[in-house]
Amino acid sequence: MFYYIVLAVGVVVSLIFCYQRRLGFSIKNLLFKSVSSLCYLLTAVFALIHNNGAYTYGSLIIMGGALGLVGDILLDLKGVYKQDEKVYLKGGFIFFLVGHIFYTCAVIYSLRIKWWLVLISGVVSAVIGYATVAMANVMKVHYGAYRRIVAVYVAFLAMTTVISIIAVFVSSFQKGYILMAVGSVLFLLSDAVLSNTFFGRGNDKPIHYFINHFLYYAGQYLIAASVMFVK
Protein backbone atom coordinates (compact mmCIF):
# COMPACT_ATOMS: atom_id res chain seq x y z
CA MET A 1 0.00 0.00 0.00
CA PHE A 2 2.73 2.47 1.01
CA TYR A 3 4.55 1.65 -2.24
CA TYR A 4 1.65 2.94 -4.34
CA ILE A 5 1.14 6.01 -2.13
CA VAL A 6 4.80 7.05 -2.29
CA LEU A 7 4.95 6.30 -6.01
CA ALA A 8 1.86 8.44 -6.71
CA VAL A 9 3.00 11.32 -4.49
CA GLY A 10 6.49 11.15 -5.92
CA VAL A 11 5.31 11.30 -9.51
CA VAL A 12 3.16 14.36 -8.76
CA VAL A 13 5.94 16.14 -6.86
CA SER A 14 8.46 15.34 -9.59
CA LEU A 15 6.18 16.67 -12.32
CA ILE A 16 5.73 19.90 -10.37
CA PHE A 17 9.51 20.14 -9.96
CA CYS A 18 10.04 19.56 -13.70
CA TYR A 19 7.70 22.47 -14.36
CA GLN A 20 9.42 24.66 -11.76
CA ARG A 21 12.86 23.81 -13.15
CA ARG A 22 12.20 26.09 -16.12
CA LEU A 23 12.78 29.01 -13.72
CA GLY A 24 16.40 27.98 -13.24
CA PHE A 25 18.48 27.18 -10.15
CA SER A 26 17.58 28.30 -6.63
CA ILE A 27 17.60 27.01 -3.06
CA LYS A 28 13.82 26.59 -3.28
CA ASN A 29 14.15 24.42 -6.38
CA LEU A 30 16.98 22.50 -4.73
CA LEU A 31 14.69 21.57 -1.84
CA PHE A 32 11.92 20.62 -4.27
CA LYS A 33 14.35 18.47 -6.23
CA SER A 34 15.59 16.79 -3.04
CA VAL A 35 12.01 15.79 -2.12
CA SER A 36 11.42 14.49 -5.66
CA SER A 37 14.57 12.36 -5.48
CA LEU A 38 13.75 11.14 -1.98
CA CYS A 39 10.40 9.89 -3.29
CA TYR A 40 11.92 7.63 -5.95
CA LEU A 41 14.29 6.28 -3.31
CA LEU A 42 11.36 5.57 -0.96
CA THR A 43 9.51 3.93 -3.85
CA ALA A 44 12.33 1.38 -4.08
CA VAL A 45 12.39 0.94 -0.29
CA PHE A 46 8.67 0.17 -0.02
CA ALA A 47 8.84 -2.02 -3.12
CA LEU A 48 11.50 -4.12 -1.38
CA ILE A 49 9.44 -4.31 1.81
CA HIS A 50 6.55 -5.65 -0.27
CA ASN A 51 8.73 -7.97 -2.35
CA ASN A 52 11.39 -9.02 0.15
CA GLY A 53 12.30 -12.01 -2.00
CA ALA A 54 14.26 -9.58 -4.16
CA TYR A 55 16.43 -8.60 -1.19
CA THR A 56 19.82 -8.39 -2.92
CA TYR A 57 18.51 -6.79 -6.11
CA GLY A 58 16.40 -4.31 -4.18
CA SER A 59 19.17 -3.42 -1.73
CA LEU A 60 21.60 -2.64 -4.56
CA ILE A 61 18.97 -0.56 -6.38
CA ILE A 62 18.31 1.39 -3.18
CA MET A 63 22.04 2.06 -2.79
CA GLY A 64 22.21 3.27 -6.38
CA GLY A 65 19.18 5.49 -5.81
CA ALA A 66 20.70 6.96 -2.63
CA LEU A 67 23.87 7.87 -4.52
CA GLY A 68 21.70 9.38 -7.25
CA LEU A 69 19.94 11.53 -4.66
CA VAL A 70 23.30 12.95 -3.53
CA GLY A 71 24.28 13.46 -7.16
CA ASP A 72 21.04 15.37 -7.74
CA ILE A 73 21.80 17.73 -4.88
CA LEU A 74 25.39 18.32 -6.02
CA LEU A 75 24.35 19.16 -9.58
CA ASP A 76 21.87 21.73 -8.33
CA LEU A 77 24.43 23.23 -5.96
CA LYS A 78 26.55 23.69 -9.09
CA GLY A 79 23.93 26.12 -10.38
CA VAL A 80 23.37 27.87 -7.05
CA TYR A 81 27.02 28.37 -6.09
CA LYS A 82 28.70 29.07 -9.41
CA GLN A 83 32.06 29.88 -7.83
CA ASP A 84 32.42 26.18 -6.92
CA GLU A 85 30.81 24.89 -10.11
CA LYS A 86 33.66 22.52 -11.06
CA VAL A 87 33.72 20.85 -7.65
CA TYR A 88 29.97 20.19 -7.59
CA LEU A 89 29.88 19.01 -11.21
CA LYS A 90 32.69 16.49 -10.70
CA GLY A 91 31.11 15.38 -7.44
CA GLY A 92 27.82 14.81 -9.26
CA PHE A 93 29.56 12.75 -11.92
CA ILE A 94 31.25 10.57 -9.31
CA PHE A 95 28.12 9.87 -7.24
CA PHE A 96 26.05 9.00 -10.30
CA LEU A 97 28.85 6.85 -11.70
CA VAL A 98 29.08 4.78 -8.51
CA GLY A 99 25.29 4.62 -8.42
CA HIS A 100 25.29 3.03 -11.85
CA ILE A 101 27.79 0.44 -10.66
CA PHE A 102 25.24 -0.59 -8.02
CA TYR A 103 22.46 -0.69 -10.64
CA THR A 104 24.58 -2.83 -12.95
CA CYS A 105 25.61 -5.19 -10.14
CA ALA A 106 21.95 -5.56 -9.11
CA VAL A 107 21.05 -6.88 -12.56
CA ILE A 108 24.14 -9.07 -12.99
CA TYR A 109 23.90 -10.66 -9.53
CA SER A 110 20.15 -11.24 -9.47
CA LEU A 111 20.18 -13.12 -12.79
CA ARG A 112 23.67 -14.59 -12.47
CA ILE A 113 24.38 -13.29 -15.96
CA LYS A 114 27.18 -15.22 -17.67
CA TRP A 115 30.64 -13.67 -17.61
CA TRP A 116 30.98 -13.45 -21.37
CA LEU A 117 27.77 -11.42 -21.66
CA VAL A 118 29.09 -9.07 -18.97
CA LEU A 119 32.39 -8.81 -20.89
CA ILE A 120 30.60 -7.98 -24.14
CA SER A 121 28.53 -5.36 -22.33
CA GLY A 122 31.70 -3.86 -20.89
CA VAL A 123 33.42 -3.64 -24.26
CA VAL A 124 30.37 -2.11 -25.97
CA SER A 125 29.98 0.39 -23.13
CA ALA A 126 33.65 1.39 -23.25
CA VAL A 127 33.34 2.03 -26.99
CA ILE A 128 30.24 4.17 -26.39
CA GLY A 129 32.10 6.18 -23.73
CA TYR A 130 35.09 6.77 -26.01
CA ALA A 131 32.91 7.59 -29.02
CA THR A 132 30.92 10.15 -27.01
CA VAL A 133 34.05 12.18 -26.34
CA ALA A 134 35.63 11.54 -29.73
CA MET A 135 32.52 12.85 -31.52
CA ALA A 136 32.24 16.00 -29.38
CA ASN A 137 32.79 18.31 -32.35
CA VAL A 138 30.17 16.50 -34.43
CA MET A 139 27.65 16.81 -31.58
CA LYS A 140 28.70 20.44 -31.05
CA VAL A 141 29.57 20.05 -27.39
CA HIS A 142 32.75 21.15 -25.62
CA TYR A 143 33.82 18.94 -22.72
CA GLY A 144 37.12 20.70 -22.11
CA ALA A 145 38.71 19.56 -18.84
CA TYR A 146 35.85 17.11 -18.28
CA ARG A 147 36.67 14.87 -21.25
CA ARG A 148 38.04 11.99 -19.21
CA ILE A 149 35.36 11.92 -16.55
CA VAL A 150 32.64 12.24 -19.22
CA ALA A 151 34.07 9.24 -21.12
CA VAL A 152 34.26 7.10 -17.97
CA TYR A 153 30.83 8.19 -16.74
CA VAL A 154 29.14 7.51 -20.09
CA ALA A 155 30.77 4.07 -20.21
CA PHE A 156 29.30 3.12 -16.83
CA LEU A 157 25.93 4.63 -17.72
CA ALA A 158 25.90 2.69 -20.99
CA MET A 159 26.89 -0.48 -19.09
CA THR A 160 23.74 -0.24 -16.99
CA THR A 161 21.64 0.21 -20.10
CA VAL A 162 23.27 -2.58 -22.13
CA ILE A 163 23.22 -5.14 -19.30
CA SER A 164 19.59 -4.26 -18.48
CA ILE A 165 18.53 -4.86 -22.07
CA ILE A 166 20.37 -8.20 -22.05
CA ALA A 167 18.60 -9.03 -18.77
CA VAL A 168 15.21 -8.70 -20.46
CA PHE A 169 16.09 -11.60 -22.75
CA VAL A 170 17.93 -13.65 -20.11
CA SER A 171 14.92 -13.39 -17.77
CA SER A 172 12.50 -14.35 -20.57
CA PHE A 173 10.92 -10.88 -20.52
CA GLN A 174 10.24 -10.71 -16.81
CA LYS A 175 8.35 -7.50 -15.98
CA GLY A 176 10.86 -6.23 -13.42
CA TYR A 177 13.75 -6.33 -15.88
CA ILE A 178 11.66 -4.72 -18.61
CA LEU A 179 11.01 -1.80 -16.25
CA MET A 180 14.72 -1.67 -15.39
CA ALA A 181 15.70 -1.64 -19.08
CA VAL A 182 13.21 1.08 -20.04
CA GLY A 183 14.23 3.11 -16.99
CA SER A 184 17.93 2.89 -17.83
CA VAL A 185 17.27 3.93 -21.44
CA LEU A 186 15.32 6.98 -20.25
CA PHE A 187 18.16 7.79 -17.84
CA LEU A 188 20.61 7.60 -20.76
CA LEU A 189 18.44 9.91 -22.87
CA SER A 190 18.16 12.32 -19.94
CA ASP A 191 21.93 12.55 -19.67
CA ALA A 192 22.21 13.08 -23.42
CA VAL A 193 20.01 16.16 -23.02
CA LEU A 194 21.92 17.22 -19.89
CA SER A 195 25.23 16.92 -21.74
CA ASN A 196 24.02 19.38 -24.37
CA THR A 197 22.72 21.68 -21.62
CA PHE A 198 25.99 21.69 -19.67
CA PHE A 199 28.52 21.49 -22.50
CA GLY A 200 26.69 22.74 -25.58
CA ARG A 201 25.58 26.19 -26.58
CA GLY A 202 22.03 27.46 -26.81
CA ASN A 203 20.62 24.27 -25.25
CA ASP A 204 19.94 25.64 -21.78
CA LYS A 205 16.46 26.98 -22.40
CA PRO A 206 13.50 26.13 -20.10
CA ILE A 207 12.29 23.36 -22.44
CA HIS A 208 15.68 21.63 -22.27
CA TYR A 209 15.64 21.65 -18.46
CA PHE A 210 12.09 20.29 -18.45
CA ILE A 211 12.86 17.45 -20.89
CA ASN A 212 16.05 16.55 -19.03
CA HIS A 213 14.34 16.21 -15.66
CA PHE A 214 11.19 14.60 -17.04
CA LEU A 215 13.25 11.82 -18.66
CA TYR A 216 15.44 11.52 -15.58
CA TYR A 217 12.63 11.08 -13.07
CA ALA A 218 10.68 8.80 -15.39
CA GLY A 219 13.80 6.63 -15.59
CA GLN A 220 14.52 6.63 -11.87
CA TYR A 221 10.92 5.79 -10.91
CA LEU A 222 10.85 2.88 -13.36
CA ILE A 223 14.14 1.59 -11.97
CA ALA A 224 12.77 1.91 -8.42
CA ALA A 225 9.47 0.25 -9.41
CA SER A 226 11.34 -2.70 -10.93
CA VAL A 227 12.11 -3.91 -7.37
CA MET A 228 8.42 -4.73 -6.91
CA PHE A 229 8.38 -7.20 -9.80
CA VAL A 230 11.80 -8.90 -9.80
CA LYS A 231 11.54 -12.52 -8.71
Give the gist of this structure.
This protein is an all-alpha fold. The chain is built from 9 helices and no strands. The model has no long low-confidence stretch (mean pLDDT 91).
Structure description:
The protein is 84% helix and 0% strand. The protein has 231 residues and is an all-alpha fold. Helix 1 (2-20) runs antiparallel to helix 2, helix 3 packs antiparallel against helix 4 and helix 4 runs parallel beside helix 7 (147-170). It is globular. The two termini are 19 Å apart.
Describe the structure using short key phrases.
single chain; 231 residues; mainly alpha; 84% helix
Instruction: Give the number of DSSP strands.
Output: 0
Radius of gyration: 17 Å
Oligomer: single chain
Structural category is mainly alpha
Average pLDDT number: 91
Helices and strands, in order, run as: HHHHHHHHH
Largest sheet: none
Q: Topology of this protein?
A:
Blueprint lengths: L1 H19 L6 H24 L4 H26 L4 H27 L3 H20 L1 H4 L7 H24 L4 H25 L6 H24 L2
